[in-house]
Amino acid sequence: MPERQVYLYDTTLRDGTQAEDFNLSLADKIRVALKLDDLGIHYIEGGWPGSNPKDEEFFSEIRNYELKRAKIAAFGSTHHPEKRAEHDPNLRALLSAATPVVTIFGKSWTVHVKEALKTTLDKNLQIIRDSLAFLRPHVGTLFYDAEHFFDGFRDNPEYALATLAKAVEGGAECLILCDTNGGNLPWTIQEAIKAVQARFPDVPLGIHAHNDSDLAVANTLTAVEMGAVQVQGTFNGVGERCGNANLCSIIPALCLKMNIPCVAPEDLKKLRQVSRFILEIANVPPNRYQPYVGRSAFAHKGGVHISAVERSPRTYEHIDPELVGNKRRFLISDLSGRAAVQRKASEFGIPISSKDPVALQVLNQIKELEHQGYQFEAAEASFELLINKAMGKFKKYFELIGYRVVDQKLSENGEPVSEATIRVRVGGQEEHTAALGEGPVNALDNALRKALEKFYPELKTMELTDYRVRVLPGKEGTAAKVRVLIESHDGKEHWGTVGVSHDILEASWQALVDSINYKMYMGEKTQDRKSPSRT
After folding, report:
1. What is the dihedral of CA 395, 398, 404, 405, to 10 degrees?
2. CA-to-CA separations, 75 to 164, 220, 262, 276, in angstroms, rounded
């Protein structure tokens, strides 16, 4: 029996950009489209031509690129109630986009017909049919999104089905049933789809679900199980309000759990990378707890869990993480045992036995430090340095003599001015420098870099990519301890470091120093691997 085909329709570039704080420039949209094409997405909805200049430019610009697999779709609405289809500027803009696919939406719910369109139920049926019939001769592929279909079906089943009949009459090749408000449950989805299939047994169906009830993925997979052949969604589930159906969860569920290979196995391994790429482009922090592609999706912290996973990964993992481009991680915390320390050390290439007294020393240190407020799950570089210190292998690249940070506000409406002065000793030579910064921590970082780059020019490639401060429970208000987590990268590697103190500058200093020490340490490890072995 041939494999069942389900087509992926991505609307990150249109529906996704309606999400709060998720914005893409024209260049961003082009880069994302090319990445989605490389993954094997079948249809990429580029935007709504006529609604804004950026979308019009996208459809013009994307024609300069030769996509390998995806087809670009333009999105728009049925014609205005007071215009004829052939004179409607929205429909004309769809044709001007010159895309191989056009998707238009129409009203399925009587509430929207009367209150949003301000027209009659009969007129709405005519609008749906005439809009599709006008487009049909001019486009290669024509899809119809039945907006608010499930709410409309619940309110007036016969009218909702009548709107679909007009869409088929107008020439729609696939009817996409939309849970636009995101409030339906899987069994209401099933009920409505059964009725549609009974009325239109030979018409392909699709599903477009929103996540306002946290059920967009479940509703989408329910529709596919019932026979839907097109799945609409966005990467990372971005979208208006609570978002759209998350393709990062839908794609592996189809491929690995429902035996519907909508992308090839070698493309599925790109899933996490594409997920992170899109978030990076939009400058949105990734959700570490996101299923399948999140950093914590296959992270194990409890000692019992870690031991079981080592014997058989399926005890606490529902899939092999490598299938979606992710990886298994064993976390170090006060829940861990000596064996966990040994495992983590082996990840860093540090040979240590779980029976080695060093492992017990590191474990006791971790428990004491975490009691103080340290956290190593997101600061693995600090943990690796901790092991090296315990083994007597830590190299001190510089010595702090002292620092001073001054934060001045010279006028009521002016911005504060931060300046840091620092004295360090490197190999017996003292360096005394000062630097300004955007805030006291940035000034301290700038001054430290300025002092050290003379001795270690490779630090110029290092950048801080994230800085987070967490107030720890204990003393209240400004007397509380804070934990500072810093993420750094040098174009090749990313690493995290941590510091804890009642003083935010001291906590930041600890994390900054660990970050610089780790950068230098990594460089030496790389050189050791490249050096010829001695006999």
Report:
1. -70
2. 18, 20, 23, 26
**Which residues are bridge partners to 329 per DSSP?**
299
Strand partners, 425: 399, 430
Alpha helices for 239-395 (secondary structure H): 247-252, 265-268, 271-282, 303-311, 338-347, 357-372, 380-390
- Angle (nearest 5°) at CA 286 between 508 and 473: 45
List the 482-489 sheet strands across, edge first: 463-471, 482-489, 494-501
Residue 483: both structure tokens together:
């934990």
* CATH superfamily of this structure's domain 399-527: Alpha-isopropylmalate synthase LeuA, regulatory domain (3.30.160.270)
Query: Residue 125 contacts by C-beta under 8 Å, 6 or more apart in sequence?
Result: 162, 163, 166
Q: What is the pLDDT of residues 207-237, one digit of tens each?
A: 999 999 999 999 999 999 999 999 999 999 9
> Residue 36 and residue 233: Cα distance in Å, rounded?
13
Q: Angle at CA 20, nearest 5°, toward 6 and 23?
A: 75
- Annotate 172-238 with DSSP letters as a single string: -SEEEEEETT----HHHHHHHHHHHHHH-TTS-EEEEEB-TTS-HHHHHHHHHHTT--EEEEBGGG-
pLDDT in tens, 47-77: 999 888 899 999 999 999 999 999 999 999 9
List all residues 6 or more positions away from 508 whose beta carbon is below 8 Å from its beta carbon: 441, 444, 467, 484, 486, 499
**Residues ≥6 apart with Cβ < 8 Å to 139:** 94, 95, 99, 100, 101, 102
**Where along the chain do its domains lie?**
7-263, 399-527
Question: Distance (Å, rounded) from C-alpha 379 to C-alpha 375?
Answer: 7
Q: Dig out the tokens for 389 from the structure.
A: 């210190």
Q: What is the pTM assigned to this prediction? A: 0.71
Say how far apart CA 176 and CA 528 lie, in whole Å: 58
Homologous superfamily in CATH for domain 7-263: Aldolase class I (3.20.20.70)
The neighbouring-strand residues paired with 460 are none
The one-letter amino acid at 490: D
